[in-house]
């Protein structure tokens, strides 16, 4: 009886241990399963956040219009730092008036980032000015101005500054005519510039700088008087290609989502406009 009791007791203990082990395994299995579920949820949340961030970034990128084509038009205020004359040194001290004109063209810009844009373009640019204070008359032995390549008509016109009339001009007074020399300079301009936004969104201010290459396409000199506007030649000292340095301050106003207006006063200093004998003329 005692042996049976012992055997029965050990059998019960064994079953209890098995039950406890099974429960412990069940608990551990549930914990592992819960860990796996938590890990899967965490990974899913991370992926969701990454996708949202990527989506946000792509949306931001889509909002930036990298390339932009813009028509441009600009009034031109032409002038010179010095009073010299590129036509002839005898006209260096003569009065000059600079005529305003208009430039027009197209600009292509690339937005590198929200602050910086790089742009290039092509413009038609016309400049002209008048030289006053001389008289002219017809002479078969006329001496032409130093830097004028004359036409046939121009080769028969003698031009004398007023300060030389008394000593050098021996013509009858009735044969003299007061005149104005008009020099026309036309260019195809190709600017390359960079703009940096200083501040502003809807109303923005930026600074621009760069240079332009100018290709000569108009070179004419006219003699104007009462009822007369005669082409007498072209300048012999103009380079076919020259450059300018550009510096501007721009004001942008966003009218609509895809439409904005811009005004940008720009100072341009021309370099190497003349091949020689510019008479200190600094356009």
What does this structure look like?
The chain has 283 residues and is α+β, with helices and mostly antiparallel strands. The chain is built from 2 helices and 12 strands, in the order H-E-E-E-E-E-E-H-E-E-E-E-E-E. The protein has helices spanning 2-63, 165-168, and strands spanning 67-76, 96-99, 101-111, 116-138, 148-150, 157-161, 177-199, 203-225, 228-235, 241-256, 259-263, 266-271. Strands 1, 2, 3, 4, 5, 6, 7, 8, 9, 10, 11 and 12 form a 12-stranded antiparallel β-sheet that branches. A hairpin with a 2-residue loop joins strand 10 and strand 11 (259-263). The protein is rod-shaped and about 145 Å long.
Order of helices and strands: HEEEEEEHEEEEEE
- Mean pLDDT over the full residue set: 82
Q: What's the tally of helices?
A: 2
Name the helicity range. Answer: 10-25%
Alpha carbon gyration radius: 42 Å
Q: Report the strand count.
A: 12
Span of the ends, CA to CA: 130 Å
Strand content: over 45%
What is the general shape? rod-shaped
**Biggest sheet record:** 12 strands, antiparallel
Helix- and strand-based class? Answer: alpha+beta
Poorly predicted spans: none
């Amino acid at each position: 009886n005692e042996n049976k009791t012992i055997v029965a007791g050990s059998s019960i203990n064994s079953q209890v241990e098995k039950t406890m082990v099974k429960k412990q395994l069940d608990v551990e299995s549930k914990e592992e399963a819960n860990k796996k579920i938590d890990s899967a949820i965490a990974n899913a949340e991370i992926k969701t956040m990454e996708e949202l961030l990527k989506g946000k970034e792509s949306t931001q990128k889509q909002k930036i219009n990298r390339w932009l084509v813009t028509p441009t038009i600009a009034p031109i205020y032409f002038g010179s730092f010095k009073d010299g004359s590129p036509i002839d040194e005898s006209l260096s001290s003569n009065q000059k008036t600079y005529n305003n004109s208009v430039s027009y063209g197209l600009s292509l810009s690339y937005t590198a980032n929200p602050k910086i844009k790089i742009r290039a373009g092509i413009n038609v640019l016309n400049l002209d000015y008048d030289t006053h204070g001389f008289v002219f008359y017809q002479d078969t032995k006329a001496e032409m101005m130093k830097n004028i390549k004359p036409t046939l008509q121009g080769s028969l016109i003698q031009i004398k500054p007023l300060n030389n009339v008394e000593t050098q001009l021996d013509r009858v007074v009735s044969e003299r005519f007061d005149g104005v020399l008009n020099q026309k300079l036309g260019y195809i301009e190709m600017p390359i510039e960079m703009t940096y936004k200083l501040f502003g969104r809807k109303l923005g201010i930026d600074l621009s700088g760069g240079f332009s290459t100018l290709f000569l396409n108009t070179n004419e000199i006219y003699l104007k008087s009462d009822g007369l506007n005669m082409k007498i030649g072209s300048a012999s000292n103009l380079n076919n290609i020259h450059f300018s340095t550009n510096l501007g301050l721009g004001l942008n106003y966003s009218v609509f989502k895809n439409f904005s207006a811009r005004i940008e006063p720009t100072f341009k200093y021309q370099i190497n406009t003349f091949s020689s004998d510019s008479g200190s003329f600094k356009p």
